[in-house]
């Protein structure tokens, strides 16, 4: 299987470093962005297998970025996980409409290896179906 292509959009460098450490075990191609505009621009020109995005971003929120990705990019169907400090009222409904997952930061860091395994399995299954 080829490498996993992951777009990571988060404003905190410490969180980006943690994500890189966790993802590094699967040796993915990582595109790191610090704001939603940069993440949206990356998603509009490059295909990714997974998008990880903080809700609290400079310039545009993670929800706004996810909505734009779903409507105007090459990654309309790409698995997307939003990362929040806490789940606020209305977040889950909005995520359902955008067809994205949302996780609290602590749960996200623990669950990231499982998310990566699921994405790799689905890519493997798609490759077999195309063969």
**Topology, number of strands:** 5
Which strand-content bin applies to the residues? 15-25%
**Topology pattern, helix = H, strand = E:** EHEHEHEHEH
Q: How far apart are the first and last residues' alpha carbons, in Å? A: 13 Å
User: What is the approximate shape?
Assistant: globular
Q: Helix amount, in percent?
A: 40-55%
Query: From the structure provided, what is the oligomeric state, counting identical versus distinct chains?
Result: single chain
Name the average pLDDT.
83
| Radius of gyration, whole Å | 14 Å
State the low-pLDDT regions, or none: none
Number of helices: 5
The biggest beta sheet reads: 5 strands, parallel
The side-by-side strand order for the widest beta sheet comes to 2-1-3-4-5
Structural class: alpha/beta
Would you write up a description of this structure?
This protein has 131 residues and is an alpha/beta fold. The chain has five helices and five strands; from the N terminus they run βαβαβαβαβα. The chain has helices spanning 13-24, 36-45, 62-72, 91-98, 105-130; strands at 5-9, 29-33, 50-54, 79-84, 101-104. Strand 3 (50-54), helix 3 and strand 4 (79-84) form a beta-alpha-beta unit. It is globular.
